Automatic annotation (TrEMBL):
This is SAM-dependent methyltransferase. Gene3D superfamilies: Vaccinia Virus protein VP39. Coiled coil: none annotated. InterPro entries: 23S_rRNA_MeTrnsfrase_RlmA, Methyltransf_11, SAM-dependent_MTases_sf. It holds the Pfam family Methyltransf_11. Residues 52-138 form the Methyltransferase type domain. Keywords: Methyltransferase, Transferase. One of its GO terms (biological process) is methylation.
Length: 250
């Protein structure tokens, strides 16, 4: 294994734009939810008339679908991701809009399908507003206490945040805007990190995990993990996900 400094230096300069995690190949693993979100979304997109993907990242998930509806739009707030998504999805005539999910720039009843994989925070009133009567919200959300073994290693106990993103709360919020729940499935998936570069890279990729993360500020913790990994003991954490399908009454 390369030295601590070599691995960290490489991870600090690697690209973290979009939602492509292939940089972690061979460095980390994560179990996938059993339902296969990308496949299920592709099926729904193939029969939709007008669809919107919220918080699309670099457009990676939408681009996996073989067939897109006649009208396909996507929103993304992070400008580097907007450029990436436009480059990827432009040839497929997808309208990629730089927009915050709190204010979707579309008319009432614009879409029969709204989707999102790992939205920053679902804005239920806006989702409901842009759906046609009978339209569907189909999404995979990050659940409560996701990757907290890693987060709390750096930040200490986060007791007040452990129920954030709880699916029960999200269902209540969705129903409060008029959506009717059709499906809710939850899962806890094992994550393993094999080198310290993977840890640094994921903390750059997901900066909300450890806000204001820097190698200098957390060097002792990183060195402790590095020593553990060099003994052949992977750092284990668990992600939580839930699949949610809700319909706007017709």
């Amino acid at each position: 294994m390369r030295t601590f400094e070599e691995l960290v230096s490489e991870a600090q300069t690697a690209d973290v734009s979009g939602w492509d995690f292939s940089w972690l190949d061979g460095r980390a693993t994560e179990q996938r939810p059993p339902w296969g979100y990308g496949r299920l979304l592709a099926q729904r997109l193939s029969t939709a008339h007008a669809a919107l993907d919220v918080d699309t990242g670099g457009g990676e998930v939408i681009d996996e679908a073989p067939l897109l509806p006649p009208r396909m739009a996507a929103t993304e707030a992070h400008l580097p991701n907007v450029a990436r998504a436009r480059h990827r999805l432009g040839p497929r005539s997808v309208d990629v809009v730089a927009a915050d999910p709190e204010h979707l720039p579309f008319a009432n009843g614009s879409f029969d399908l709204v989707s999102s994989r790992h939205p920053v925070r679902p804005q239920w009133s806006e989702i409901t507003r842009v759906l046609v009567p009978g339209g569907t919200y189909f999404a995979q959300h990050v659940g409560p206490a996701s990757a907290f073994e890693l987060i709390e290693f750096f930040l200490g106990p986060q007791l007040e945040n452990r129920r954030s993103r709880h699916p029960d709360t999200e269902v209540q919020d969705a129903e409060a805007t008029g959506l009717a729940l059709e499906t809710l499935r939850t899962v806890r998936c094992r994550m393993e990190f094999y080198d310290i570069g993977a840890v640094v890279w994921i903390l750059r990729k997901c900066p909300w995990w450890v806000p204001n993360f820097s190698v200098d500020d957390y060097r002792p913790q990183l060195q402790e993990i590095d020593a553990r990994l060099r003994r052949g003991d992977p750092f284990v954490a668990h992600s939580t996900r839930h699949l949610i399908v809700a319909r706007k009454p017709g």
